[in-house]
Every structure is written in structure tokens, then in C-alpha cells.
Design goal:
The protein has about 400 residues and is of the alpha/beta class. The protein contains 18 helices and 13 strands. The protein folds into three domains: about 20-135, 3-Layer(aba) Sandwich (Rossmann fold); about 140-310, Arc Repressor Mutant, subunit A, CATH 1.10.10; about 325-410, no CATH class. The chain has helices at about 20-25, 40-50, 60-70, 70-75, 90-100, 115-125, 145-150, 155-160, 165-170, 175-195, 200-210, 220-225, 230-240, 270-275, 285, 290-310, 355-365, 400-410, and strands at about 30-35, 55, 80-85, 110-115, 130-135, 245-250, 265-270, 315-320, 325-335, 335-345, 370-375, 385, 390.
Length: about 400
């Protein structure tokens, strides 16, 4: 029985990213898959590449050999291998470069996974530039959950549970699993990435970040509230980003060199973790929580990101805010094509929700630019608000084309 009370199987190996992962392996000698711990990287890679030996660098003896005798370790696998959690021995990639260059025509011999984004990608870019494809696997997207899991659930229930496969698959209470996850994360990853001496202060910092989800990031204010220096706050936030806990969206403007609002917006990669950090344990609690709207905006943000990243594409998403207060929650720029999305957690469609989108569209039109606009809200049925299509949050479970189709039907 899953955390959602459904007994149907969870597709841990049949992820949206799987065909992209296999395609990249036919194109590159090395494929690198990064993402949060427990997002399903190992399960996906072991099922997608069953012919490759699995080598986990989490094992102390294997990690010791990777650090002390990297050539000897690689020599044991002449036909390649799946190197799991390779950030534990980043220097291994320099030796892997020699192996790849000796067999330049071989494709898909090496598959690397890692839970540290910035550190691992830096090692990949330095040692395996042009030889490695880099993909991201995030916690399960709504579109990856079987329909029986989502059909009868309110968005608040799905937000509290989040997308980490383990509690969904094993039936472990989400709050229990996330509590253990935070404790393990603080003890292992934070010490590995950055020497944080006071873990209690760091956990307080993480909780303060959760309280700012969906807001403009003011590093000075965040540091002051956490009782740490501005530079320390910046370094600690970089740890959260490097280990796939948080990410930021940058502001968009027609002239990207003269943005009126320069601060990014802060989001969490998993709403279950976000809710846990906010002290929210049940959907009923989220329904009346003062940050309900921020959690819903965060939920939409990560679903939009997953729709792109799980298809091997870079995210096109930004946000818009000008000095006069006009704000568009999400803006996508594809060349000269623009999309604007306004997000509202309410379940009753309000006509005034379209005002910001209409004003933004008119401003663009005055500069000979056009934009497709839509509202995503917490209700169940599509509709329109002053001519602007409004789609239910459930459209996010249909992928990018399904969501757009619902808006058009509305």
C-alpha cells in the first residue's frame, strides 16, 4: 500500500527520462545523471543498463580504491560500468578521460550518477568536456504517477507527500521518511560539500529558506534572520543548490541586460520536503496554512521544470516583475515566442486573476511582441477569465502538451 493508499505499482524504472537516457547513451561515451539523493537515479540506470556492472562509490572499500588507485579500479571494467555517486571521488573522472579517449568510438560504456550538482558538473566539464551527456533526474513528477494515485486526491495531499519514490513505494509515513532524510542529509552531504560546524544553525537556515519559498531572495535579510553573515548565507544556499534541495528562477525582461528587478525567486525541488520543513504534516493543515499559496506556486514551478528536464531539455522558465508591481509568476522564452503563466491556489476561478497577464500582454504588444498566456489554479475544471484560458492544476499531470490542450479546450 502506497502513501496515497493505492496498491497499484509505482513505475520506478519507467520514468519520463528513460528514453532520453538511452538515446544519449547511443550518442556519447559517457552519460552523467545527476539529481537529489533518493530520486531514483540508481534504480533507473540499473534497469536501463542491465549489462553494465554496478559500482557504488558509497561503499568504503570501493571509494578507497577510487581515491588511491583509480587506474586499477577502472581496469577491472574494460567494457565500462555504472559508477554510482561518483562525486565521492571526483578525481576519478580525470582518469576516466584517458580510458574514453583510447576508445573514442565506443558509446554508452560509462554511466555516472551523482547527488551533487555543481561539484560533479565542474569535474565533468573539466575532464569530460565533449565526451559526456549530462541529464537530471528529479523526484517523481505528477505525470509519472499512475492515474489511480492522483485521480481522487486534492493538490494539497500530493504537495505534502511530494515526489520522492521511497515513501510512495514502501508505504512509509511521509513525515517519518522526510525526517530521516533531513537528518541524513545534514549529517552526510552538508559535511561533504561544505564544512558546516554548527548543523543546528544550518537546519534553522534551511527552515528559514522554506519560509521564503516563492519569494524574491534577499540574502542579507535571510542571513540576518538566521544570525549568520551575508557571505555565510550565500555559501550555505550554494550547498542547498548543489545538493538539489533548492533552486532559483531568474527575472526576465525584454532587454535582459537591464532588468528592473534583479533578485531571483527561491524554490524547493520537492514540495513534500518543503511542507515538512514548514511543519505541515497533513493536507488539512496545508489547506489553512498562511503559505498555502507559496506551496502551490512551488508545486507548479517544479512540475514545469520537470516537464523540461525529464525530457533532456534545458528549462526555459523565468519570472517577471517590474518596479511598478506588475508580476507574472512564470515566463518561458523560446526564441521570439513567449508564454506567461499566473498561478493561484484558490479553487474558484476569479476574473481579476487575468488582469496582470492582460497588462503584460498589452505591454509586449506595444513593442511588437506576442505572448501566449494562461492561468493555473487550484480548481478542477478549465475555464476562462476575461478571455485568458485557465487550466486546472491536474493538467500538469498530462505533461506539457496535455496542459496546453486543456487550456485551449477551456
Amino acid at each position: 500500500m502506497s502513501a496515497l493508499g493505492v496498491s497499484s505499482p509505482l513505475p520506478l524504472s519507467d520514468r519520463t527520462l528513460r528514453p532520453v537516457l538511452l538515446e544519449r547513451a547511443r550518442q556519447y561515451p559517457v552519460v552523467t545523471l545527476t539529481g537529489p539523493r533518493q530520486s531514483g537515479k540508481t534504480t533507473l540506470c540499473r534497469t536501463a543498463f542491465p549489462h553494465l556492472p554496478w559500482v557504488s562509490l558509497e561503499a568504503p572499500d570501493v571509494r578507497a580504491q577510487a581515491l588511491e588507485d583509480p587506474r586499477g579500479l577502472l581496469r577491472q571494467y574494460p567494457d565500462g560500468a555504472l559508477l554510482d555517486e561518483v562525486q565521492r571521488a571526483p578525481d576519478l573522472l580525470s582518469y576516466l578521460q584517458d580510458d574514453v579517449d583510447r576508445r573514442a568510438d565506443a558509446r554508452g560504456r560509462w554511466v555516472l550518477t551523482g547527488s551533487h550538482n555543481l561539484l560533479l558538473l565542474r569535474a565533468v566539464s573539466q575532464s569530460l568536456a565533449g565526451r559526456a551527456a549530462v541529464l537530471n533526474l528529479l523526484p517523481l513528477a505528477l505525470e509519472e504517477l499512475p492515474e489511480p494515485w492522483t485521480a481522487g486526491e486534492h493538490w494539497t495531499a500530493l504537495a505534502v507527500i511530494g515526489g520522492y519514490p521511497a515513501p510512495l513505494h514502501r508505504g512509509v509515513p511521509t513525515a517519518t521518511w522526510l525526517g530521516d532524510y533531513v537528518a541524513t542529509y545534514l549529517d552526510r552531504d552538508v559535511r561533504d560539500v561544505l564544512r558546516v560546524g554548527d548543523l543546528r544553525s544550518f537546519e534553522r537556515f534551511v527552515r528559514l529558506c522554506a519560509g521564503r519559498a516563492g519569494q524574491l531572495l534577499n540574502m542579507s535579510s535571510l542571513g540576518a534572520d538566521a544570525g549568520i553573515a551575508h557571505g555565510t548565507a550565500k555559501a550555505w544556499l550554494s550547498v542547498l543548490e548543489a545538493t538539489f534541495v533548492t533552486f532559483t528562477l531568474q527575472p526576465w525582461a525584454a532587454n535582459l541586460t537591464t532588468r528592473e528587478v534583479r533578485a531571483p525567486k527561491l524554490f524547493f525541488w520537492d514540495t513534500g520536503l518543503l511542507c515538512w520543513l514548514l511543519g505541515v504534516r497533513h493536507a488539512a493543515d496545508l489547506s489553512v496554512h498562511p503559505l498555502r499559496g507559496a506551496v502551490f506556486e512551488n508545486m507548479v514551478a517544479v512540475e514545469l521544470m520537470k516537464q523540461e528536464l525529464h525530457r533532456g531539455r534545458r528549462s526555459p522558465w523565468w519570472f517577471y516583475r517590474d518596479a511598478k508591481g506588475l508580476e507574472i509568476d512564470f515566463v518561458a522564452a523560446h526564441g521570439t515566442s513567449l508564454r506567461g503563466i499566473e498561478v493561484k491556489s484558490g479553487e474558484t476561478l476569479q476574473q481579476e486573476w487575468a488582469d496582470g497577464l492582460r497588462a503584460w500582454r498589452e505591454r509586449l504588444h506595444a513593442h511588437a511582441r506576442e505572448a501566449e498566456v494562461a492561468i493555473v489554479y487550484g480548481g478542477e475544471t478549465p475555464g476562462t477569465a476575461r478571455g485568458v484560458p485557465a487550466r486546472s492544476w491536474r493538467s500538469l499531470a498530462s505533461g506539457p502538451e496535455g496542459a496546453r490542450g486543456e487550456a485551449e479546450r477551456g
